[in-house]
Design a protein that fits this description.
single chain; 4% strand; mainly alpha; elongated
């Protein structure tokens, strides 16, 4: 069953996925990149925070309602500020590594786990 927290999570992660892909494909360092990058970072921080409120229903629960997938949420919560400060300090290599990691870990890998049997999106999309 889709809860309000799950809806809010989907409402932030879907545009983040599209925006993150756009940012990776377009020129870097432009005013548009900087502005959209900040929007992307806010979306990802919100997405990760909301995901911590969704109980793990597949696999072991590690602490309270948190499961293994929530480790990716903590990685995003750590990596996004790290990427922001790296960009502000003109450490573009560190910024790029952090942001690529956020996209692949926080969007693609976490998204793949949402399709696991027993998860809501698996039931919704695959029946």
């Amino acid at each position: 069953m889709l809860t309000p927290i799950m809806s809010a999570h989907l409402f932030t992660v879907l545009p983040a996925a599209l925006l993150g892909a756009y940012l990776m494909l377009k020129p870097k360092g432009t005013p548009a990149h900087r502005l959209l990058g900040k929007v992307y970072m806010v979306l990802m921080l919100t997405t990760a925070t909301l995901s911590l409120l969704i109980p793990a229903t597949v696999g072991p629960q590690l602490v309270g309602h948190l499961g293994l997938i929530h480790i990716l949420s903590f990685v995003v919560l750590f990596s996004v500020p790290r990427a922001y400060f790296a960009a502000r300090n003109h450490d573009l290599v560190q910024h790029k590594m952090a942001m690529v990691g956020v996209y692949f870990g926080g969007i693609l890998i976490a998204g793949a786990f949402t399709l696991a049997p027993g998860r809501y999106l698996n039931q919704l999309l695959l029946g």
